Amino acid sequence: MTQRPDRPAPPPWERRSERTVPVPRDARRPRDPQRRRPVDRPAPADDPPRRGQARSAPIPSAPTRVGQAWGAPARVDPVHGAPARVTGRPRDARPPQAAAPVAGDATERTQPVGKAPGRAGAAREKTAGEGRHGTTSRLPANRRRPPAPGGRPRRRRLGPALATTAAATALPGLGHLILRRHRTGGLILGAFLIGVVSLAVALLTMGRSDLLETVLSTRFLGVAAVLSLLAASAWITVIVRTYLLAKPTRMDTGRRLLGAGVVTALCLVIAVPFGLAAEVANSQRNLLNTLFRGGGTSAADAIKQPRLNVLLLGSDAGPDRTGARTDTMMVASIDTRTSKTLLFSLPRNIQRAQFPPGSAMAEKFPDGFHDPSDPLSGNYLLNAVYAYAHENPAVAPSGPTPDPGINLLSSSITYMLGLPLDYYLEVNMAGFSSIIDAVGGVSVDVGPVPIPINGVTADGRHVRPSGYIQPGRQELDGEEALWFARSRRDSTDYDRMSRQRCLIQAVLNQKSPADLLTNFQSVATAATDNITTNIPQDILPKLVSLAGEGGGLHLQSVAFDPSLPDPNQRDGQFNTARPDPTYMRSVAEAAIAGRPLVGTPTTPTSTPWATARRAAGPTATPAPTTPPPSATPTSLADSCAPQTP
């Protein structure tokens, strides 16, 4: 390579082909192969001192260039004026072996002969405040963990780690406090306590009506479902974080699986109740949105009214009949101040049902709903008005619901009773059994004789029953409760109406909101599939509040059957074949006003079990009784009480 004349040739130690000579092997400290530990012998005089060792004489400088002897002064670079660095030396160059130390020699070290301290010993010689690199620790003295006894570091164990994680499961933030993370633990625990106290204060200070309005609000239920999921996620995060901070750093596979399993179980303890709360809130929200869509009287107007009138219908669309028929028809008139409720029961076999004057049905049937060519036809009873409207929707009013059957039947009942209907609630009797099963059954007094299951065909023929409901106090499931309410074998329609009222009374008295909440999923499913109504969501808190005030609803019943006195009839009884709308309106008005009903009956009033006792004993004749001078609404609690035969 041609060199420039103005620059001297580079010295040999700057060539890249040269390499630094490695430390000779014989300069290392030999080890004893038997004990496998460093031999206790003094280090050579030219060996650099270890960490923490003191020097008594300067160490000869290492060679900085090729050919320089150990201990000789370094050569100065003539160009740069700095000591030349070593880039390599021949392999045969060896540092001179130091002779054995001589007493009084100036190059002898002051360190006594013995085992040199290792890394662990040097670390133990550090002070409590000395850091990793010999500097003072940044943590204040009150936050440093005290050293373990004997100078050894504290070892984490799986058992205490799981116990600390369980403490965080019981009370969020407690695990961090145990691990001496006071700031983080205090923040977590404080947030948890603030949330609990705020919820408790809200429950204690809110009134009953405000609480019901909040619980039955779809917006609140949606927020509650989201907050439940967020609270569960935050709590589970605290549990997992506590375990990660407390667990040992090194674990075998078995302990690692054990710890993961225990932490998973602790997380499920928190996730299950919060998940269930979110599911219940979301299901109730969906139920309110699906079932209570409104359409009737607005909530603002309904709350101002002295009474709310609700039409209760039980439709039966069996395979042995064409269309659906409302075999159960009641009007519940609720006092919005006292919660006293009157049930006006209308038999399914009322003939010649009347309609408002001027309506299409009144013009088509001026003498009532019947067929002159077949006066005894079952297709022209009150329970057939619903199906007739579906077959002839042109004759039905256009409101208040989209269902022509509900509209036509409501107009007829409103005209005959003189009660404006605010809402309706229709229950499919085929799904009534699933609703009873959803609430856990019901306990009723069957009476002195068994009640047949089936036994009557659609055309009225009696066949062999498929079973019996035994007499006395019985716990009925859904199927048995359905036949208790609809059986007509060995009894009449009026006895069946009485049993239906007693069943409603039993359900309202025995089933609390806690029972509905316990089985809410099944209740919501059964109600959504089998109940239709036009009750708005805004009126629900008022209705539920009325049902809970004063020990529940106080039900009284007025049945428009032959047990009702009617002075306009020859026999003094209400005639279902030719009902008098004027008299029916006067009875409803007197019952609401609390006055005695007009008229004096000429025969004793029948009870739910009267016809059954007559069927059980053909030769038995009822004892003569003195009829009361007037009739009043009957308390369902008294009429449904157990009676001895």
Summarize the topology:
Layout: H1 119-124, H2 158-170, H3 174-178, H4 182-205, H5 208-215, H6 218-246, H7 253-291, H8 299-304, E1 307-316, E2 325-335, E3 340-346, H9 360-364, H10 385-391, H11 404-417, E4 423-428, H12 432-438, E5 442-445, E6 451-453, E7 467-469, E8 473-476, H13 478-486, H14 493-510, H15 513-518, H16 520-530, E9 531-533, H17 540-548, E10 554-559, H18 581-593, H19 610-616, E11 634-635, H20 636-639
Parallel strand pairs: 1-4, 3-10
Antiparallel strand pairs: 1-2, 2-3, 4-9, 5-8, 6-7, 10-11
Biased composition (Basic and acidic residues): 1-50, 122-133
Family: Belongs to the LytR/CpsA/Psr (LCP) family.
InterPro entries: LytR/CpsA/Psr_CW_biosynth, LytR_CpsA_psr
What is the gist of this entry?
The chain is built from 20 helices and 11 strands. It has 645 residues and is of the alpha+beta class.
Describe the structure.
The chain is an alpha+beta fold and 645 residues long. Helix content is 37%, strand content 9%. The chain contains 20 helices and eleven strands. The protein has helices at 119-124, 158-170, 174-178, 182-205, 208-215, 218-246, 253-291, 299-304, 360-364, 385-391, 404-417, 432-438, 478-486, 493-510, 513-518, 520-530, 540-548, 581-593, 610-616, 636-639, and strands spanning 307-316, 325-335, 340-346, 423-428, 442-445, 451-453, 467-469, 473-476, 531-533, 554-559, 634-635. It has a seven-stranded mixed sheet with strand order 9-4-1-2-3-10-11, with helices on both faces. The chain has a two-stranded antiparallel sheet with strand order 5-8. A hairpin with an 8-residue loop joins strand 1 and strand 2. The radius of gyration is 48 Å and the shape is elongated. InterPro entries: LytR/CpsA/Psr_CW_biosynth, LytR_CpsA_psr.
